[in-house]
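Sample entry (210 residues):
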Amino acid sequence: MTKNGKISSFEFLRKHALKLGAKDAKIIPVEKIVVEDRIVFKCQLGCEKYGKTLACPPYAPSPEKFKKIANEYHYALFMKFESKAQLNPELIKYLAKTEDTTIPKEIKSKIDDFWSAWKSDGEKLRDTVFQLEKLAAEKGYILAIGLVSGSCTICEKCNVKKGFCINPMKRRFSEEGVGVNVKATAEKAGIKFTLPFKKNPETFALLLID
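Predicted structure, serialized as tokens:
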């Protein structure tokens, strides 16, 4: 079977992803997944969640380790979603200052609404990945496993100090946390990546298929 023929055999997963709410989805060879050390370096220097969840660096697999894991698969389903959390220029400048007591109440309320919607979308994204994993397993691809955008929000506070996840069946590693350059991978997959966002942020997910 040709590579294109094999890709078409996963069309059931792509179609189901769209049915579950993906704005776009493509089956790609794993060689098109761009994994770079600098992505985790950026997490280390620019993300407040670094070291605070067991699904993120330094607890997630390193880019080197993830490359080895990904290369044990052949294809991946790469998906784009659109969050219901709405942004505007006024909110953007306050998002990183949620503890600032001088923020006007009406702005604080909108920021709280944004993060609430963002968390809800994250939960939906994770649930979508679970459903796709299950569908793949039912078709015989029992090692299919997904990754999601952003940090883990399953628990109010992660069990980092004790060093073990209390929700291992639900936890999924962050794409960025294992070194996936989401922008570059989207470009290789032929999926439009928009940054800065105009209104609704985009999120992405990845399903490795054996």
